Amino acid sequence: MTTTQEAVTAAERCTPEFRRDPHAVYAHLRTAAPVCPMRPPHGNDTYLITRYDDARAALSDPRLSKDMYGAMDAYRRIFGDSSVALDDNMLNSDAPKHTRLRRLVNSAFTPRRVEALRPRVEEIVQSLLDACPTREPFDLLPGFAFPLPIIVICDLLGVPPEDRSRMQHLSTTVAQTGFGEEAKRAQQQAEGDLHAYFTELIGAKRDQPGDDLLSALIAVRDNDDGLTESELVSTAFLLMFAGHKTTAYLIGNAVHHLLSHPAQLRAVRENPELVRAAVEELVRYDGSVESATFRYATEDVEYSGTLIPKGALVQIAISSANRDPQKFDRPDELDVMRPGNAQDAHLGFGHGSHYCLGAPLARMETQLALTRLFDRFPGMALADPAAGPRWLEVPFPAFRGLAELPVVLDPAG
């Protein structure tokens, strides 16, 4: 594999072999090349951080900037010009802009608003399960894991029900874009459509505000310094995109691993109070965020004896950090009763000022999805356990998720 003198290519991280088991590669890198230079197809010097301590420090290191405008040439080579209009949000900014945007969004996206969604999430879960076939194999991802968070985030933002499938299609197109010309055109078209859609929706909600998050964001003010039009559109996109893709893949990963570990599933079913700890462990063990979004070095930075030069891009391998034996005992084992499995132990929702704003909602949705699914279908099983899982092959290993999840909800009938 890769040594400290070699660079890992992006292609090596997208092979079927790597997608099936990235953890063996990451284990090697943590020892041999904990800060590994990469040769991605976009041509920008990139370094991959794989150890837990380095990753945690890097996630809050002010020398590693999230402000895309500071690395605009690199950004355009990777994503093109069309993405810029949708990235004027807190995910792609540093203080003081990030601080202002985060405070404004926090003032509307309150814990009370999230908790108030619990009965509605329960209702959506039960409704989706009502519609699932029970005795024959079917794919749980499009039948349950994906509709749940897209309905929830659309309800939260105030997106009309008839637009849900379109939102899912467009954001999926953006997420799965490759480097070919055809893929780039599809990405640009989808991003343009999303920008136009949210611009129109924001205009409609200005005229007729509703009891939804987008209306609250429009109305919010912070010392007369509210969100600009560009920031509103971009924030709406960010909440839509991040609010359903990562949760959908997390639910799929969680169901797969619990079905593949009967003793762990039995422990959760026998003690429902374990579901909260189980979700944290599942996020650590194989969460849906494999790598954090790009950062770039504003000055020379050193991690684990490796110099990251000024201007280089940095990727932080969350999946690797969460399996680091220097932090977690028996990291490659799924253990829902793992001692000290506190919410802030793993890095699945990030760390520092960019810690995932939607983490409470993602936790709630996943907990309710697993609880109701296994309560209602205690005999649920993988349709073909011998076949093994088929994982997504994506151009950037940002998401860790299944391409399909064939199950039988009630094999005994």
Automatic annotation (TrEMBL):
Its EC number is 1.14.-.-. GO terms for molecular function: oxidoreductase activity. CDD domains: CYP107-like. It comes from the Bacteria. InterPro entries: Cyt_P450, Cyt_P450_B, Cyt_P450_CS, Cyt_P450_sf. Keywords: Heme, Iron, Metal-binding, Monooxygenase, Oxidoreductase. Pfam families: p450. PANTHER family: CYTOCHROME P450 YJIB-RELATED, P450, PUTATIVE (EUROFUNG)-RELATED. Belongs to the cytochrome P450 family. This is Cytochrome P450 107B1. It comes from Streptomyces cyanogenus.
